[in-house]
Design brief:
The chain is globular. It has a domain at 26-84 and 146-234 and 336-409: FAD/NAD(P)-binding domain, CATH 3.50.50. α1 (40-54) packs parallel to α4 (144-158) and α8 (366-385) runs antiparallel to α9. The longest helix has 20 residues, at 366-385. The strands form seven sheets. Strands 1, 2, 3, 9, 10, 11, 14, 20 and 21 form a nine-stranded mixed beta sheet that branches. A seven-stranded mixed beta sheet has the order 7-6-16-17-18-15-19. A three-stranded antiparallel beta sheet has the order 4-8-5. The protein starts with 17 loop residues before the first strand and ends in a 14-residue tail after the last strand. 24% of the residues lie in helices and 23% in strands. By secondary structure, the chain is of the alpha+beta class.
Length: 565
Amino acid sequence: MPVEPAQYPPPFDERELIAEPTDPEDERIEVGVAIVGGGPAGLACANRLMDLLADEPELAEKLGEVPVAVIEKGKACGAHTLSGANLRPGPMRELFPDLEPDDWPFAYQEVTKDAVYLLTKRAALPLKPMPPNFRNHGNYVISVAKLSRFLAERAEEKGAYVLTETVADRLLVSDRIVRGVRSGDRGRGRDGEPLGNFEPGSDVVAKATVLAEGTLGHLTQGALDYFDLHGRLPVRWELGVKEVWEVPEPLDRVIHTMGWPLRKRAKWNEFGGSFIYPMGDDKISIGLVIGLDYTDSTLSCHDLLQELKTHPFVKKMLAGGKRVAWGAKTIPSGGYYSMPRSLSVPGMAIAGDAANMVNVPTLKGIHYAIQAGMYAAEAIVEALRNDSVNLEAYDERVRKSQIDSDLFESRNMRPPFSKGFFVGGAMASAMTVTKGLFPGGTWKYEPDAEIEMADGGADRDYPEPDNELTFNKLDSVFLSGNATRDDAPNHIKIQTHVPRELAKTWVNLCPAQVYEIPDDQLASGAPEVDVHVTASNCVQCGAINAKGARLTMPEGGDGPLYQEV
């Protein structure tokens, strides 16, 4: 029977994420600006802040010994960042005007050639003329993990403090003003009991706080509820699974594909496509992205990527190669109308993917994140000069920028694909040509968790792993560098006895084999089953949030350790 994931909400209350400072004043960690998230948005903010404070020594001194602190949950900045990724260079040039792209240590090459193909099961049909939203000439193929590490190094050189392996667990609020964050406990056992190495969290109080947590931000979700900041339409999500391959033959262009192995009929609602990017002379990255508003409980992005690699067009590129990296991450795809109605509240700003600043038709978001981080820094310095907590100047900067105008032009690109591949493609083309004017209006849609799930048979064609071209989920998780300890508390909140179709949805959705139905129940045909959770497998992609569960924060340092992706 079809089942709606939203009917089985997780045992979690977003209000738990908001608290007043509790540590005695002399035990609190005081910083000038607390930035949650060591990705492009947060680290661009840190770099810009330090540049501005260098010109205002009195203000810098006023902020204390730690003027800027970046709080990053991964083992290193970039450990949890994952993307395609093609970078529009403008914001990076602005942030580092003395550094030419040829000197960027995170960039592989400038894009000089593009191609888009429509795949059938055996053929690859080039689309000419190429859809304008796929043009990448002048952009740079980069590693987002390396970009984050570079930005962190630069921020530290300028005097920012980067606190890795540190979870921002609660947002500190008093009198409706954000006062900072509380870090998470460390050293708890499977049942939450303190172990011998237990360290309690601390209140990190700040004059301004920036939430730059990336997709499905833990505190951002709580802040959106507490301050009633939700956009006009609900957030929509996509899941991307990506691999890096060492190959004998270099790739000379950026490639995108659409069509197979996704099905075109509206009943399946399978939106997405693949990307294949060159990474210098000896590597390529290949990934598949699917919208999480699909309807088939057996659909698996990880297995669809394995299937894609069996296509003759793709298989030829990988021939003689070796898989060297793997990762998975969600992408916010609701666009303009799903952005928070306000990007700031007193004492706090939201930037980057946490604020849904992704342009799905062009597959771009990194340059928006960098630019938004810079805008947040500028608005914060203006406020601090006046001893103010009002950060509305940040909203104004974003709303008058290319971030806002680009996302507005593509505001209705995503919803028409619920009518099927061909109808959606035709409408999206019309919107591209008219820059969003036709068809106009606001296309409403259901949240991903309210889409009914049923067995649609997508899993019938998944290839068996051969460990040369195709691989299983557990071997893939190993490549992510995931080192979460087995006895860590479970950070995934789900109902553990649910209808079979919902359990199957979770099992197939997860690219890291976190969820499992016991074999005897799987074979029994019972309408309801138990779900076992192996939380140590989790790579924190966040996809489970879109289908009725809730990913919370594990201990700092847990999760993947991405290097190349």
